[in-house]
Amino acid sequence: MKKFLKIGLIAALFFTATGVHANDDNFTLKVKGEKEKFIRFSVDKAEDVNLSLIGADEEVLFEENIHASALSSKVYDLNALPDGNYVLKVESELKLAKYTVTIKDGEALVSEPKVSNIFKPVYTKKDQVITLDLDNLDKNPIEVKVYNEYNDEVYNEVFKDKSQLTKKFNISKTDSKELTFVVTYKEESFVKTIQTY
User: Fold this and answer.
1) Pairing between β-strand 27-31 and β-strand 15-19 as defined by DSSP bridges
2) pLDDT tens across 114-160, in order?
3) What distance in Å separates the CA atoms of residue 126 and residue 118, rounded to the nearest whole number?
């Protein structure tokens, strides 16, 4: 924990500039120049984004919640990091993207997103029905599990070849106070706990 805090304090100093930068995607990650250990993260519209830098053994080295009120970008200085491979995870309310950041010979190289535009499940609760919606353009298998507050599995189903999943859950007859939904696809799991009343 102390190591995380120490690295977190150092990483907090990485932020070096803000500005305006337009792009075609909801968010992008670019190298700021040649032979530099700087990366630029850009958001093209107002939204809340969680950005985290992950090192070896899934250790979170830096995490920041960004509230972008409009087009904006930030530049991060990675000079304090040793050579190696890192994962930069960028998550908004609806999407998740992961980038590999390789630091080698005084240069930061950023890959294309490892997981491109994963859409996160969206839940709506109306009366006694919880509706799960998920865009799945690549038609990957989707596993949906539901647990009650005692961690008992109450539902499990795998959906295949669906570009759009809409699943309704009638909760009128459940005596559970809360249900936890675990949706897994594209090697990512999304967990959401919803109060039933």
Assistant:
1) unpaired
2) 655 678 899 999 999 999 999 988 899 999 999 999 999 999 999 99
3) 26
How many angstroms separate the CA atoms of 41 and 64, rounded? Answer: 12
> What mean pLDDT do residues 100-118 have?
77
Q: Which one, of 63, 82, 56, 52, lies nearest residue 5 by Cα?
A: 63
Q: Are 61 and 7 in contact (CB under 8 A)?
A: yes
Q: 95: Cβ–Cβ under 8 A, 6 or more apart, which residues?
A: 26, 117, 118, 119, 120
92: β partners: 49
What's residue 15's pLDDT? 35
Compute the distance between CA of residue 160 and CA of residue 39 in angstroms, rounded to an integer.
38
Q: Give 5's contacts (C-beta < 8 A, 6+ positions apart).
A: none
* C-alpha to C-alpha distances, 55 to 7, 92, 95, 112, 119, nearest whole angstrom: 11, 21, 22, 18, 24
Indicate the SS3 state at residue 8. Answer: helix
Q: Span 2-10, mean pLDDT? A: 41
